[in-house]
Amino acid sequence: MTLTSFGPANLIKRSAETHPLTWRLRDDGEAVWLDEYQAKNGYAAARKAFADMAQDDIVQTVKDAGLKGRGGAGFPTGVKWGLMPKDESINIRYLLCNADEMEPNTWKDRMLMEQLPHLLIEGMLISARALKTYRGYIFLRGEYTTAAKHLNRAVAEAKAAGLLGKNILGSGFDFELFVHTGAGRYICGEETALINSLEGRRANPRSKPPFPAAVGVWGKPTCVNNVETLCNVPAIIADGVDWYKSLAREGSEDMGTKLMGFSGKVKNPGLWELPFGVTARELFEDYAGGMRDGYTLKAWQPGGAGTGFLLPEHLDAQMYAGGIGKVGTRMGTGLAMAVDNTVNMVSLLRNMEQFFARESCGFCTPCRDGLPWSVKLLMAIEKGEGQPGDIETLLGLVGFLGPGKTFCAHAPGAVEPLGSAIKYFRSEFEAGIAPKSAAVPPLAKPIVVGA
């Protein structure tokens, strides 16, 4: 699979006016370093933010543009920024970039960090200015070694050019930026677990409230944003709210563009920057090229392993949070996976639930015990040794581990694909239930003393 933002030549031509995230990409896939980035108008937005905009105006501009988090939750970025304290006496604040991209089937942030590291740095610089944060960390998935190498080089380039460090652009504003590689835990994608890990603690989610904006890293106000989210900030500052909103398709409630992709046995697996509101069918047929010869589309997930399965008839849904919500699941990261006709859904779900069970932090009982239980049942069904009632037990676990039932969102995301798979492909689960004659016999009638 290639990391690309190119679509079919007759459908897409990248430009600054239509592709704010990817228009600077090189055709050879190499990283864009400082000189080239500045030649392509890089850091112009930062200079504008420092010279012409008050800090609160930057926050309001991002809020007015309707930018939402691109990590999967979709919380309004400007609203999140507005939660940071206004008290000027609090002079220690932190900005964290969540680059712990461990959602299966998701690699969009990797492309940005490997090929456009200065875009992320510029987005963090502007954000730090708006939030009055004096130090930032890019919390990076440990396996992303190339991204770490490129980010560290870009940080050094920016610092040498006076774009990081002390008295940036002669403004009197200081901002230090560090790349921190994690040890590889899926749960670190949850912002408070990420904070704990950065502090050297076990990566367990924290109780909220207090929220990180009040009590975050080392007890100080902290804002955590996703890589792609921060990479949208320079274009919003440079070109304005109205332009940014105009990028989305009619009917979309989400503004701007989004990195979207398709993997699986499609003809052209990849990654593209597309406007919010494009239909999943366009993404699947026009960009991913449909299924390879000899395969048909059985099901698809719209945005990572933690989103529910959909059917081919759902491809006409628009790719934005509300559009995917109308057909019964979440958009998530926006990188879809095609499931072909050769895949057994029980085996696929067993593999997924094993991953989620392994990655549980183990803090709360429903997640710690419920996910391994689902794996045990799925393994039995996969072998044809499932017992009558196992499917109902699995559906019960989907309910017990759903939203609001666990300490964080890990378990609800883990069981969402399980519930949808049973909904649409129940017969495949039923096929793994052993005949009654082979089932475990019921307990013998208890002996009553004195009867």
Number of β-strand runs? 8
Instruction: State the helical fraction.
Output: 25-40%
Characterize the main sheet.
4 strands, parallel
Examine the secondary-structure arrangement and name the CATH architecture of the largest domain: 3-Layer(aba) Sandwich
Q: What is the H level of CATH, i.e. the homologous superfamily of the largest domain?
A: NADH-ubiquinone oxidoreductase 51kDa subunit
Structural class designation:
alpha/beta
Q: Please indicate the percent range of residues in DSSP E strands (runs of 2 or more).
A: 5-15%
Read across the widest sheet, the strand sequence of neighbours is 3-2-1-4
- Oligomeric form: single chain
- What is the rounded distance between the termini? 71 Å
CATH topology of the largest domain: Rossmann fold
List segments where confidence is low: pLDDT < 50 over at least 5 consecutive residues.
1-11, 442-451
- Count of DSSP helices? 16
Shape: globular
- Mean pLDDT over the residues: 91
The number of domains: 3
Based on CA atoms alone, the radius of gyration comes out at: 24 Å
Helix and strand run: HHHHEHHEHEHEHHEEHEHEHHHH
Look at the structure and give the CATH class of the largest domain: Alpha Beta
Structural summary, described in words:
There is one protein chain. The protein has 451 residues and is of the alpha/beta class. The protein has three domains: 212 residues, 3-Layer(aba) Sandwich (Rossmann fold); 94 residues, Roll (Ubiquitin-like (UB roll)), CATH 3.10.20; 86 residues, de novo design (two linked rop proteins), CATH 1.20.1440. 39% of the residues lie in helices and 10% in strands. The protein contains 16 helices and eight strands. β2, α7 and β3 form a beta-alpha-beta unit. α14 packs antiparallel against α15. The chain starts with 33 loop residues before the first helix and ends in a 21-residue tail after the last helix. The N terminus and C terminus are likely disordered.
